[in-house]
Write a structure and sequence with these properties.
Length: about 250
């Protein structure tokens, strides 16, 4: 297993693959962690997916960028964030069962993180000579929101999008951009008992993507803000399909 850390643009990234030296990956998967997690939070996904589906090891490279904001001052020594949250407000909403619909929110810091992640992807595409249409973007929670935003705003058409416990936000801008991603392969999952991000707004995101012509596989599971084993298996099968090559889009 090849595992190294590299700085791409302004982001520190862990790169994991099992490819022979000088071998170009067929697919590059960029996975962004959630709010408060460490930069290495999702890194075990790479080795576990290779173990679960050995065929991926011959074709796939994983990149795990670390969010730029340090949350140690908030009592999270290894915690990172893509943009800041009002934690007190969030905790009160969770405690009283008053989860907010975030679809109209455009968080301060979203645009800057979009630029940083987009620059990271462009730089790695240049260094590896792998075009954007062979990149899959994804993440968990806040990382899933950022991956969705970058997918809808980037130049070129990514191979796929993985949205794990994400939500619909920045709706007016996303709706203007989503038609440009017709035919996009999307794997989206969300727990029906998620105490942080409502299942209903995940459904709204699914519907927006589907109505614009994206190919969305939506996994609704009984559970909270997490990634269950069945979703892990679906990620593996989705990446297997994407390794075969881009699917044709109906005219």
């Amino acid at each position: 297993m090849n595992d190294h850390t590299i700085q791409l643009g302004e982001l520190n990234c862990r790169v994991i693959d099992a490819l022979p030296a000088e071998t170009q990956p067929r697919l590059i998967v960029v996975l962004c962690h959630g709010y408060g997690a460490s930069g290495s939070d999702l890194v075990p996904f790479g080795a576990e997916l290779f173990k679960y589906t050995p065929s991926l090891a011959a074709h796939v490279q994983f990149v795990f960028p670390e969010a730029p904001l340090d949350l140690s001052d908030l009592g999270m020594p290894e915690g990172r964030a893509w943009w800041h949250l009002d934690l007190q407000k969030l905790q009160m909403a969770v405690a009283f069962g008053q989860l907010r619909d975030l679809r109209e929110d455009k968080p301060e810091g979203l645009e800057l993180s979009r630029q940083r992640l987009s620059s990271m992807i462009s730089e790695w595409s240049r260094q590896t000579a792998v075009p954007i249409d062979r990149f899959v973007l994804g993440g968990f929670s806040q990382g899933a929101m950022l991956a969705t935003d970058v997918t809808l705003n980037c130049d070129g058409n990514p191979a796929g999008l993985i949205v794990l416990s994400g939500t619909l936000l920045n709706e007016s801008e996303w709706r203007q951009r989503v038609s440009h991603r017709r035919g996009l392969t999307v794997l989206q999952s969300h727990g029906t008992e998620d105490p942080i991000l409502p299942h209903s707004t995940a459904e709204a995101l699914r519907d927006m993507l589907t109505d614009a012509g994206s190919r969305v596989e939506f996994i609704s599971f009984r559970g909270g803000h997490t990634i269950p084993i069945d979703v892990f298996r679906r990620i593996a099968s989705t990446l297997e399909r994407l390794c075969i090559g881009p699917q044709s889009v109906d005219p």
